[in-house]
């Protein structure tokens, strides 16, 4: 993933947190915990993954705008590709 160190670090932190939450959900299911508790934690995992995805797309958009004035005409992703990625998260 291309991006500044801070953005990459934020995404990795979100994904690691989601990974830990998912491990917790798996343990809850194995322990036979209440359905409501399991679904609540699973929703938290889903939100964490969504936020990580949006952060990745936002970083791509920022870089695309910053690189829009590149003289070689090359971009990491086209506007159409970024739109497709964004809509994939919806």
TrEMBL record:
Statement: the UniProt record of this protein carries the keyword DNA-binding: yes
Source domain of life: Bacteria
GO BP annotations, alphabetical order: negative regulation of DNA-templated transcription
MF terms in GO: DNA binding; metal ion binding
Keywords, ordered alphabetically: Copper, DNA-binding, Repressor
InterPro entries attached to this UniProt entry: Metal_Tscrpt_repr, Metal_Tscrpt_repr_sf
UniProt family annotation: Belongs to the CsoR family.
Stated name of the protein: Copper-sensing transcriptional repressor CsoR
This protein's encoding gene: csoR_2
